[in-house]
Amino acid sequence: MKVVIDIPDEAYELLKSKSELDNIAESIIANGVPLPKGHGRLIDADKLNRKKKYCFRTEHGTFPKSEWFIKADDLFSAQTIIKADK
């Protein structure tokens, strides 16, 4: 099972260095979010938004900003944060 947890950096560093903090670790893990079985790979989609946006021209002109898209190559090559659960 994979669980996503959100903790302050200081707490993470403390947990890594002190084994006697088991109760704190248990509490943090209990409040985590389990990832569903069979989930796909997780990426930082916000990073894609910082990339150059692409547009394409048609006979009616260039698509307006609201119609811009992310290239499939950018999506497929995005860095994986958590591998897919196959």
Describe this structure in words.
The structure is a single chain. With 86 residues, the protein is of the alpha+beta class. It folds into 2 domains: 1-34, no CATH class; 41-86, no CATH class. The protein has helices at 9-17, 22-30, 45-49, 72-76, and strands at residues 3-4, 33-34, 42-43, 57-58, 61-62, 80-82. The model has no long low-confidence stretch (mean pLDDT 77). The longest helix has 9 residues, at 9-17. The protein has a two-stranded antiparallel sheet with strand order 1-2. A two-stranded antiparallel ribbon has the order 3-6. Strands 4-5 form a two-stranded antiparallel ribbon. Helices cover 33% and strands 15% of the residues. It is elongated, with a radius of gyration of 20 Å.
In whole angstroms, the N-to-C terminal distance is: 12 Å
Shape verdict: elongated
- What is the number of independent domains? 2
User: Major sheet, described briefly?
Assistant: 2 strands, antiparallel
Query: Widest sheet: strand order?
Result: 1-2
Q: What portion of the residues fall into strands of 2 or more residues?
A: 15-25%
Q: How large is the count of helical segments?
A: 4
Order of helices and strands: EHHEEHEEHE
Mean pLDDT equals 77
Short description:
The protein has 86 residues and is of the alpha+beta class.
Topology, pairings included?
Layout: E1 3-4, H1 9-17, H2 22-30, E2 33-34, E3 42-43, H3 45-49, E4 57-58, E5 61-62, H4 72-76, E6 80-82
Antiparallel strand pairs: 1-2, 3-6, 4-5
